[in-house]
UniProtKB/TrEMBL annotation:
The keyword Coiled coil does not apply. Keywords: Phosphoprotein. This is Response regulator receiver domain protein. The keyword Membrane does not apply. PROSITE patterns: RESPONSE_REGULATORY.
Length: 122
């Protein structure tokens, strides 16, 4: 993975939680960019113009369609996708799996395991 590809795009409006995700990503050697108001008009151009090694998707982001994120990913190199949400929102988590996310985890799991998810060790 090139140094320029060690970037993570975090799609989440939860600024408190994304602060801890950014810190975990940076501790693992990744530059983290946060899109706090993710919508297709904003993230599709980013995914087309930047090379990300991973995209982290907050399933609780209002109006965010996880399938649109997956569709917007470049084919090569395809960034790893990590979706997260509350463990009680089983339907949202399953929808992310069905959309093709590489990893679908609860909020607690992403907090504890983001570094290993980003590096592909999980």
């Amino acid at each position: 993975m090139s140094e320029s590809a060690r970037k993570v795009l975090i799609l989440s409006g939860d600024l408190f939680f994304t602060s801890s995700l950014r810190s975990a990503a940076e501790s693992a050697g990744f530059a983290a960019e946060i899109d706090a108001m993710p919508n297709a008009q904003r993230f599709v151009p980013k995914l087309a113009s930047e090379e990300y090694s991973a995209v982290v998707i907050d399933l609780e982001s209002p109006g965010l369609d996880v399938s649109k994120v997956i569709e917007a990913l470049p084919a090569e190199p395809r960034p790893r996708t990590i979706a997260f949400g509350p463990h009680v929102q089983v339907a949202r988590l399953e929808a992310a799996r069905q959309a093709g996310c590489d990893h679908v985890v609860s909020r607690g799991q992403i907090s504890a395991n983001l570094a290993t998810l980003l590096t592909g060790e999980a």
